[in-house]
Description:
mainly beta; 26% strand; two-stranded antiparallel ribbon
Amino acid sequence: EKSAESVEWMEQCELLIPTKGNTAEVVLTALHRNFLGVDEFLGRVALPLSDFDHHEKPKSKWYPLECKPGQKKADYRGDLEVRVGFTVIASDKIGGSVSDLSKKKKGSSSSINKVAGNIG
């Protein structure tokens, strides 16, 4: 029996960008778990990373659920709202700073005073 109401999942996850870079894709699959323990396939969404600009702010977009790969069913499966955002993490390998600023004392002005003293 199908629900007439909208269903909301507030799932969130963090994924590392694979070495393939922007040729990779994220595939989201929606399943319905019934009482018998057998998951019913509702649809899937494939999101190629090349479709996103990692400099933009995270934004939400609705994507139509599609059938399994290789199938050509045209029936409406629903839509999935997805919010994608990128966090760039510095790495020694690419010349970035890997110091952890969260461990520094908050409100400490000693390092600022040192810099100011060095400037003039």
